Amino acid sequence: MKRPLVIAVLVALTALFVGASGRPPSSQWVATWTSMPQLTEPGNLPPAPFTGADRVLDNTTLRQTVHVSVGGPRIRLRFSNAFGGAPLPLTAVSAARPVGGHAGVPGLVPGSSVPVTFHGRPSTTVPMGAQVVSDPLPFPVRAAENITVTAYLAHGQASTSITSHPGSRTTSYLVTGDQAGAPDLPGATPVDHWYFLSGVEVLSPASAVAVIGDSLSDGRGSTTNGNDRWPDVLAARTSSAVFNQAAGGNRVLQDGLGPNVLARLDRDLLAQSGVEWAIVFEGVNDIGTAAPEAAAQTADDLIDAYDQIITRAHAKDIRVYGATLTPFGGNSPYDTPEREAARQRVNTWIRGHFDAVLDFDRVARDPAVPARLLPAYDVGDHLHLNPAGYRALASSVPYGLFDHR
Questions:
Q1: pLDDT tens digits for 135-165?
Q2: DSSP track, 274-309
Q3: What residues contact 142, with CB distance under 8 A and at least 6 apart?
Q4: Which residues face 38 on adjacent strands?
Q5: I need a surface site. Which of 90, 225, 323, 390 has the fewest CB within 10 A?
Q6: CB-based contacts of 106: which residues, under 8 Å, 6+ apart?
Q7: What strands lie across the sheet with 163-165, from one edge to the other?
Q8: CB 284 within 8 Å of CB 256
Q9: Which stretches of 196-273 are assigned E, i.e. beta strand?
Q10: Is 10 exposed, middle or buried (0-12, 13-18, 19+ CB in 10 A)?
């Protein structure tokens, strides 16, 4: 072979196997969807007859849909028993495609259901306080696809302390008996919560962005089954995975609805697969629930906590982007002069100390009254945003923040 031809072949092979990034392509397990595990409050337990005096979901099929961010040829599932008062026995689990590709529907595309195994077995038991990761599943998924996960619990969980994510904004279904493989669940009971399922991982060359937040990221004010929370919209704008570890009422410093951020950081960020970046958009509940006379100290404590988050994430080579806290002027009971001063102090610090800043305050505030949300983005309580507001937040995130270093 002549030398110019040899060189041309080598160049072509290099381009094929290295790609435009200049790095050899490789795949890793990446978190493409998550739900932050929480202890289920009594009002969010499964409705009768699915909750008994000392047991939940006895002889029950649970069908849930989730919205992945990036796709790949294989997936694996995570189930959490972080807050369970007893071991969690999963008798059978399957993954399938929902009818029409829709979120929050009970029907499956015929022939799409694939059994999930755990170390080669169809069943598993998740110990108290633990989680379990399934075997890799030959179930290709596309970016922004909805998938269905069905679990059957022959004997339920022998406790009313269970792990869930109440703010799913997605409808799940409960029905008595083993109907894990049923193509539809006529007569099933709908519930707008996720139970036990805490993550979907995909085999992908992408890296992941973790969102650490409260109800503003969990999607209060977004559309049920619409997948229009701001992290969903952000996921559609980037080739990286975006997974949402937010919960309504959550706080950075103290437990609220779910453990505080400093306590949950290892599980919800550092132990997740394929994470390269984190967005921290949380602190408004810390300020809003502080006594007015304690608001200044709360601001100082939040700043210390953010510094801890950055330090711990950097130790895992994760870049941390800070989102400024959006206005709550006019909200009762959050709105006081002392709390607004604390928000401003915290935002000033955020703008100068993270690896990059997402200035959500600037995006969402009313230019005429900067302590208040822009009316067009206000869901009505002067704290949470509507879908237009969430689109505005996601659209303000600069391109390039999630490029490989």
A1: 999 999 999 999 999 999 999 999 999 999 9
A2: TEEEEEEE--HHHHHHS-GGGHHHHHHHHHHHHHHH
A3: 71
A4: 164
A5: 225
A6: 63, 173, 184, 185, 188
A7: 38-39, 163-165, 194-195
A8: no
A9: 197-204, 208-213, 241-246
A10: exposed
Number of residues that make up the chain: 405
Q: What is the pLDDT of residue 25?
A: 52
Distances (CA, A) of 46 to 153, 276, 316: 13, 36, 38
Give CA–CA dist 108/148, Å, rounded. 8
One-letter amino acid of 274: G
Mapping DSSP to helix (H, G, I), strand (E, B) and coil, where does residue 227 land? coil
Q: What is the torsional sign of CA 39, 42, 45, 50? A: positive
Q: Which residues does residue 118 pair with via DSSP β-bridges, in sequence order?
A: 121
Chain segment 50-59, per-residue pLDDT in tens = 999 999 999 9
- Single-letter code of the amino acid located at 126: V
Residue at token pair 């092979």: 13
In sequence order, what are the residues at sequence separation of 6 or more whose Cβ sits closer than 8 angstroms to the Cβ of residue 154?
59, 89, 91, 178
DSSP string, 318-384: -EEEEEPPPP-TT-TTT--HHHHHHHHHHHHHHHHHSSEEE-HHHHHEETTEEEEE-GGGB-SSSSS
CA proximity to 169, closest of 233, 226, 214, 105: 226
State which amino acid sits at residue 257.
L
Asked if residues 219 and 167 have their Cβ atoms less than 8 Å apart, the reply is yes
The CA radius of gyration of the chain, in Å to the nearest whole number, is 22
Which is nearest to 221 in space by CA: 383, 335, 393? 383
Q: What is the DSSP string of 117-186?
A: -BTTBS-EEEPTT-EEEPPPB---B-TT-EEEEEEEESS-BS-S--EEES---S-EEEEES--TT-S--T
- Please state the rounded mean pLDDT for residues 378-385: 98
Tokens representing 172 are 């799940």
Sign of the Cα torsion 19, 21, 26, 28 reads: negative
Separation CA 52–CA 74 (nearest Å): 37
pLDDT band of residue 405 (cuts 50, 70, 90) is: low
